[in-house]
Specification:
Helix content is about 45%, strand content about 25%. The protein has about 220 residues and is of the alpha+beta class. It has 3 domains: about 110 residues, Beta-Lactamase; about 35 residues, no CATH class; about 70 residues. It comes from Campylobacter geochelonis.
Length: about 220
């Protein structure tokens, strides 16, 4: 997206953050040829992320699988913050025809409402509360389809840790070229290199130059 569009959407993020309130995190992801990153964020106390933080692993999967070509948005999927708080996420794809330019995401922390309901039931000493059958059916459906699909990562390191064994990289062991190729291929398959600054971070973790990372990536492209 161009500078003017990004500025306007940044104002929209601020507007939504104030209107929806503190239990809603609103995030604008800018997706460029140089990489993707958070361009604007409001109520970031929910995930502790900030401007220039990377996309999540889930968002990278959406880009890699080109979900935006068949969908304009996704709603009410389960996400979790690094601190273990569950939230409900929704994503709107910002597109120019079929080309993705960004994503507007809203993460709702509804735990406070759940706690209020529990406290009200306790005040009334209602221990035998039976939900209507249709609500029970809905809850069963949600439980079956409530797998966490997104972890709200605060850094590229968090995302890498979910894909590869970071402890191995921090052990000081010199990795064989075959192992480095395996790691870079795995990161490529997960779309990690769509993140702004990912090549530099991977080069640092693998104790190699950026040029070397690009050489390994060329091998992946050819395979």
């Amino acid at each position: 997206m161009d500078k003017k569009q990004k500025e306007q959407l940044g104002k929209l993020v601020k507007f939504l953050g104030e209107v929806l309130g503190q239990s809603y995190e609103v995030v604008l992801h800018d997706i460029t040829e140089k990489g993707a990153y958070i361009a604007a964020i409001e109520n970031n106390h929910i995930s502790n992320r900030s401007v220039n933080s990377p996309l999540t692993g889930f968002a990278l999967e959406l880009l890699k699988n080109e979900e935006y070509k068949d969908n304009d948005y996704l709603i009410n999927y389960k996400a979790m913050t690094k601190r273990g708080n569950s939230v409900r996420g929704s994503t709107f794809f910002i597109k120019d025809d079929d080309k993705i330019q960004g994503m507007l995401c809203i993460n709702h922390n509804d735990n406070a409402y759940k706690n209020v309901v529990e406290e009200i039931l306790k005040l009334g000493n209602i221990t035998d509360y039976n939900k209507p059958q249709n609500e029970q059916i809905q809850e069963e459906y949600l439980n079956k389809n409530s797998e966490i699909v997104e972890y709200l990562s605060e850094s590229i390191e968090d995302i890498l840790a979910g894909i590869i064994d970071i402890s191995l990289l921090n052990s000081g062991v010199n990795l064989r070229p075959e192992k480095k190729q395996e790691i870079i291929s795995a990161l490529y398959d997960k779309g990690v290199f769509n993140i702004k600054g990912a090549v530099l971070k991977v080069a640092d973790l693998l104790h190699m130059s950026e040029q070397s990372v690009y050489r390994y990536l060329k091998k992946v492209d050819k395979s």
